[in-house]
Amino acid sequence: MADVGPSCDLTVDADGACLRLAGPWRGTRLPDTDAIVERLRAVPPRRLTVAADAVADWDSRLPAFLLACHEACRGAGGSLDSTSLPDGLAALLRLATATAPAASSRASRHGLFSAAALRQQLHEIGEEVLDSLAFLGDALRACGRTFVPGSATRWVDLRDCLYQAGPDALPIITLTSVLVGMILAYLGAVQLQQFGAEVYVADLVAIGMLREMGALMTAVVMAGRTGAAYAAQLGTMQGNEEVDAIATLGLSPMEFLVAPRMLALVVTMPLLVVYADLLGIIGGGIVAGGMGISALQYLSQLEDAFSFTHAFVGIGKGVLFAFLIALAGSRAGMSAGRNAAAVGRATTEAVVTAVVYLIVADAGMNILFQQLGI
Questions:
Q1: N or C: which end of the chain has fewer CB within 10 A?
Q2: Each residue of 255-287: pLDDT tens digit?
Q3: Mean pLDDT throughout 46-73?
Q4: Residues 136, 327: contact at Cβ < 8 Å?
Q5: Same-domain status, 290 and 347
Q6: Count of structural domains, the chain
Q7: pLDDT attached to residue 104
Q8: CA pair distance 52, 44, nearest whole angstrom
Q9: Which residues are listed as membrane-spanning (predicted)?
Q10: 302 CB burial (10 A radius; 0-12, 13-18, 19+)
Q11: Of 77, 101, 125, which residue constitutes the final position of a domain?
Q12: What's the first-to-final CA gap in the chain, in angstroms?
């Protein structure tokens, strides 16, 4: 006698629906289960009864099919009666339906612009702002207590952080500053040549580096270098429970870990900005010399264009940028999870947040200086 293949029959009436299963649910000759699931999704019954007494044998595809039927009914508030299922199959189904499934990405996209989703997003943004302000207050207080006797801040940690944020950063700052100065000089010279005023390229390079590019490019490099390092270091310490151990010893993690890093970057950043300004001006002089401008002409125009106001504007930006970079990196690291993936996310968050802070702060300071006539 030929083997009887598996069968699946769905009957729907006013009281609910009945799904009758029979035969061996194993192999390749299975019924069209997708059509059954689509029927249930189209008109979900309040109760779906499964009659599987005649099922002789089954593999993993049968519980997957029943789980899809269960989800189709539960989406409309219905339920699935699995009392007649074999013991093993019923246990698998109970295990799979013990918790509600996470919302699908498709449902999330459909609900992205709903009122509830908008309220949730605004609520999360508000909590993020409050957490940032709270961390800012704790960081400022920790930095202030650094110079008070009994502080948890160690000067040896501050020295190590100063070296990491200062001398260790000189090679990359040197490269980027010279190239930025050369780029400014080249772009300016190309335009000024049309008017026979190539000599004024020194003014363009000097003012551009002193007021804007020296501080901004140094800050971007430090955000990707030092800010990310802060997030990775503190995030790894969170994962290893070192931060909890410091708190257990009665020490403040903000004073012990965050304050040295923040103070080190605030101290070294203005010096790096001055260093970047000098190298950028030298890079501009290299390009100017290649375009026929003598060193004497370049230095003479540079002397006329130089102003301590321009220099102090750039240094002031450097101090603010350093504080924002250290704040973003430290906060991302201190709030990181306790696994490798969380440390990676914290590092990415630190760099992205710091760059956003830099752009917003730079735009705000430029508008302020313009209004003040500085």
A1: N
A2: 888 889 999 999 999 999 999 999 999 998 898
A3: 77
A4: yes
A5: yes
A6: 2
A7: 46
A8: 20
A9: 169-189, 262-288, 308-329, 350-369
A10: middle
A11: 101
A12: 98
Percent of the chain with pLDDT over 90: 22
Q: Does residue 129 lie in a domain region? A: no
* Domain annotation covers residue 110: no
Question: What would the pLDDT profile of 333-363 be if each residue is shown by its tens digit?
Answer: 888 888 888 888 889 999 999 999 999 999 9
Query: What is the span of the domain harbouring residue 42?
Result: 7-101
At 115, list the tokens.
């009122």
C-alpha 143/C-alpha 130 separation (Å) is 20
